[in-house]
Amino acid sequence: MFNLRLFIEASITLLVIMDPPGTVPVFLGLVGRKSREARKRAARQGVLVSFLVITLFAVAGNSILAYMHIGIPALQGAGGLLLLLIALDLLTGKGATNHPEVEDVNIALVPLGTPLLAGPGAIAATIVFVRQAGGDWGSYFALAAAIVAVHLVLLGTLRSAGLLIKVFKESGILLMAKIAGLLLAAIAVQLVASSVAGFIASGV
């Protein structure tokens, strides 16, 4: 049977961790000054990347981490350092490129798709829910439905973010890019701190 309790629990947990409203300022900071079609494409590609990453770790996360001898703290540290580099680009204004198409794809992959959406927290939560499913196909189906539902919410949120551009205009988007840089830097520091705490707790 469909595990409704697991579906609700997984949906709420992933929504809280992935924080659709919280991604809007960062998303606009990254692509707010691009065309409407470019924003829609970046939103679609970013959510798709996140969905593929989460699905991959739901299916084979335990095996991947065990085979490569990687723990969640290592993922947190790597994600934190990656976000810090992106944050510095946003804060210093050095993230521009002469190839907009390449930039759109890169933004969709990093940092939007991962590690911003499909970050260490979402990956770890997914792995935990897979373990809770315990081989029950109803629970697996509920978890899959939760992952799809959360990503549909993410897609709807990012696609509607363009409405804010009409309110904030060009100068507001530029300010939002700086704010996004600060937010990403704070997230990066928190991930690195959590990584260090995780390594200490594990005795590594």
Structural notes for this entry:
Helix content is 86%, strand content 0%. With 204 residues, the protein is mostly helical. Helix 1 (4-18) runs antiparallel to helix 6, helix 1 runs parallel beside helix 7 (137-159) and helix 3 packs antiparallel against helix 7. The chain is globular and about 50 Å long.
Structural class: mainly alpha
Helix content: over 70%
> So how many helices?
8
Low-confidence stretches: none
Principal-axis shape equals globular
Helix-strand pattern: HHHHHHHH
Oligomer: single chain
Residue share in β-strands = under 5%
Indicate the radius of gyration in whole angstroms. Answer: 17 Å
Number of strands: 0
Q: Give the mean pLDDT.
A: 84
What composes the largest sheet? none
Distance between the termini: 41 Å
Question: Outline of this structure?
Answer:
With 204 residues, the protein is an all-alpha fold.
Q: Which key terms come to mind for this protein?
A:
204 residues, mainly alpha, 8 helices, 0% strand, globular
Chart the SSEs and their pairings:
Elements lengths: L3 H15 L1 H12 L4 H33 L3 H21 L7 H18 L2 H14 L3 H23 L3 H40 L2
Helix pairs in contact: 1-6, 1-7, 2-5, 2-7, 2-8, 3-5, 3-6, 3-7, 4-5, 4-8, 6-7
